[in-house]
Amino acid sequence: MKFSIIPSMLLVACGVEAPPQAEPVPPAPTPASVQVSGWEGFWPWARVDDAWLAERGLPFTAEPMREAGPRVGKLVIAGGPRESSEADLLRLWVRSCEEPNTRSWNLDRCRGIEARSCSDGQCRYEHFGNCSGLLAGGGWFVTAAHCTAELVADAGFAQRSSILLPGPAGQPPRQLRVGEIVTGKTDWEHHWVALDGQDPVDVAAIRVEDGGLVPFLTAPLPAVGEPLFILGYPRVNDRSREAMSTVGYDLVAGSPSVSFGRMADTNPADAPLCNVDGDQEHWALRSPCPAGPVGEGDEQTWTGPISHSPFLATYDSCNGHSGAPVFDAQGRWVGVNFTLASDTNPQEAFVEHARMVATPVARALDRLGIAPAE
Fold it and tell me: Shortest CA distance to 353 belongs to which of 6, 23, 24, 30?
């Protein structure tokens, strides 16, 4: 079976055109004991309780999710002017803006669509993407580095971006300003390959006014097969209402949601996620990782490390989940989600053999210079 690696947040959400697809290569083998059947979906964080978990046979309790949820935020990313067909924008508006609670989580995007300027069916509008992240304590919000690439490059984008946090009934009562950004990766010019020699890790920390929160409790990676959950803000724009109804989950677009899975590969060899031959989607856990240019002229691409020290897991993921915190069953923070491996577009449907790629929290905090909780 062959796989490709697909960013959990589309590149267009950071102001970069989405890359072409290429023939994939297989990642590291995954233990056959890891089962994910029946765990598909993005479930509204505010509605998950112990009875709901028990009914589905999921080995979790709701309390860790309730405790973590208020500190899991939605990074609303200003992306500047874009062009799209009026029909596509109207479909996005219906999905994101028609229902009041949905609109409250997508307000900047909705206002951008409503202020569009159109001619002959084509429109220009202000684009907003989103990622996820955690208030780690000490005045920092931790997310994926690729979510902040445009914000680092353009201070205006950072000023128009913000972080939303959930409150009672899942509404977004709090909005935080984006401050200083510290990033574990800065090279985005080589098909996500980093050739700057700076120990690339796809994590970032944003300075925020968090009211003096203490550091969030962290833990080492659990063993292969152990349960995990992830909290974040998936968009699932390409998953039809019919598909979601068949599966049974009731997602409010862009709102806080939980997904469930298991540890698939702790990457004990500490191999980097590597572009192995220069093709855009030929990413795999590989050590040593070749680095340098391949080809010439317009055909030139690059091999090299994309992010160091990742692990693989089985939870459902799609656009908007980049930067989302990964927790063990006790609600301790164990990783930062940043991409996924699949041979099928996960925006359209869940793939049971998909493998999510995340950075262990200790590696992330060390790279960013943020001390974990004792």
Answer: 30
Give the DSSP letter string of 96-138.
HHSSHHHHHHSHHHHHHHHT-EEETTEEEEEEEEEEEEEEEET
Percent of the chain with pLDDT over 90: 55
- What span, in angstroms and rounded, lies between the C-alpha atoms of 280 and 27? 15
Q: Phi first, then psi: what are they for 319, rounded to 5°?
A: -50, 140
Task: Supply the mean pLDDT for the chain.
Answer: 84
- Beta 162-165 vs 174-177: how paired, if at all? antiparallel
Q: Which domains does the chain have, with CATH numbers?
A: 4-14+21-367 (2.40.10.120)
Give the helix/strand (H/E) hosting 88.
helix 86-97
pTM for the whole structure = 0.87
Task: For residue 307, list its beta bridge partners.
Answer: 273
Distance CA 305, CA 242 (A): 39
CA angle 103, 131, 204 (to 5 degrees): 145
3-state secondary structure of 157: helix
**Of the candidates 339, 344, 343, which has an alpha carbon nearest to the alpha carbon of residue 356?**
339
